[in-house]
Amino acid sequence: METPYQNHIDKEDFDHVYEPAEDSFLLIDALEKDLQYLKARNPTFCLEVGSGSGVVITAFGMAFPGTFCMSTDINYKACVMSQSTANHNKVSLDAVNMNLIDSFTDNIFDVILFNPPYVVTESEECGGKDITASWAGGVKGREVTDKLLDMIPKKLTHNGTFYLLLIEENIPDEVAAIMSALGFKFETIIKRKVRNEQQLVMKFYR
Amino acid sequence: MKLITHNMLTSKCIKGVLTGYPLAINATDVKVTEVDYNPDFLSRVIPKLDWEVLWTAANSIGHGEGLPKAVEPKFEENEEFLKKAHKVLLEVEVEEGYLTCPESGRQFPISKGIPNMLLTEAEVQ
């Protein structure tokens, strides 16, 4: 998979929107590792939740020209940036300013991607609409992730796949147990140690 | 916002709203951008859409001309139909305007093509 062109972004805009970092690229690398699996499924709709700069969903759109891509973010400035990243890379994307996937009808998405706010913080720090929303994850760094997990069974198509980035502090085993109880199988696709952070990407499917 | 996306948006999460679908569109600025025509994609996506909602949405923003009210059988083989569907689904975009919940009347502004679907905690069920 190719890395999207990003030089159109004004550096100052990263004061308000999460700048692509190792975690963003780990998620792209995970998708690349799973490329054959995804191509065999020929997805119609792919959604990235909390797309920030839009670099991940744009990379997906570049690799899958036959998939319609959508993105959400609670931060309007992130939606504008995601849209512009997609446009610069000739990917057809619609960005919607939304909390997680609250305002979509059921049973649509063949692929859902989520690089959540995973940093362990106080609960009070979590739940903003600005750049803190891109990293502040509250208790276990999981407060936002756990809200999305509950919605996945309804929003994902029956044969759909959900990719989630986590760090060790998020207790991936607990996430796997939650998803198993919701009827999903799981695999860890890729792991990488970045400075003091053990990052990984898990995949969930039925 | 393209009409393919409008087809999947709902205001169901508002307290007291049952379906919140379809959202009415009021557009003050609509643009048309060229997108690569992909008949294979259209054949896969059309059966997944609510066509009547698409038809009504296209007409409400002045782009419904020539669009059939229902999807014909063997539509995959009808290139004229697929090209019309392509334009309405992917090329027509609402840049400015607002969406309205059919039950509560709550409006959702669209600015620079991006609908703002955010609700306050008090509005959510």
What does this structure look like?
Chain A: This is Methyltransferase small domain-containing protein. Chain A: It holds the Pfam family MTS. Chain A: Residues 38-122 form the Methyltransferase small domain. Chain A has 206 residues and is an alpha/beta fold. Chain A has a single domain (12-205), classed as Vaccinia Virus protein VP39 (Rossmann fold, 3-Layer(aba) Sandwich). Chain A is built from six helices and seven strands, in the order ααβαβαββαβαββ. Chain A has a seven-stranded mixed β-sheet. Chain A starts with 21 loop residues before the first helix and ends with a strand. The relative contact order of chain A is 0.16. With 125 residues, chain B is of the alpha+beta class. Helices cover 27% and strands 20% of the residues of chain B. Chain B has a four-stranded antiparallel β-sheet with strand order 1-2-3-4. The longest helix of chain B is centred in the last third of the chain and has 13 residues, at 79-91. The chains are: A alpha/beta (206), B alpha+beta (125). The A-B interface holds A 42, 44, 65-68, 70, 74, 76, 79-80, 83, 92, 94-99, 102-105, 108, 129 and B 1-2, 4-5, 8-13, 21, 35-36, 38, 40-41, 44-45, 48, 90, 112-119, 124.
Quickly list its features.
heterodimer; A: 206 residues; alpha/beta; Rossmann fold; 7-stranded mixed β-sheet; 31% helix; B: 125 residues; alpha+beta; N-terminal domain of TfIIb; 4-stranded antiparallel β-sheet; 4 helices; 4 strands; 20% strand
Can you give me a brief rundown of this structure?
Chain A: Residues 38-122 form the Methyltransferase small domain. The complex is a heterodimer of chains A (206) and B (125). Chain A contains six helices and seven strands, in the order ααβαβαββαβαββ.
Topology, please?
The complex is a heterodimer of chains A (206) and B (125).
Chain A: H1 22-33, H2 35-41, E1 45-49, H3 55-63, E2 68-73, H4 76-88, E3 93-97, E4 109-114, H5 143-155, E5 156-167, H6 172-181, E6 185-194, E7 197-205
Parallel strand pairs in A: 1-2, 1-4, 2-3, 4-5
Antiparallel strand pairs in A: 5-7, 6-7
Chain B: H1 3-6, E1 24-32, H2 39-45, H3 51-60, H4 79-91, E2 92-100, E3 107-111, E4 114-115
Antiparallel strand pairs in B: 1-2, 2-3, 3-4
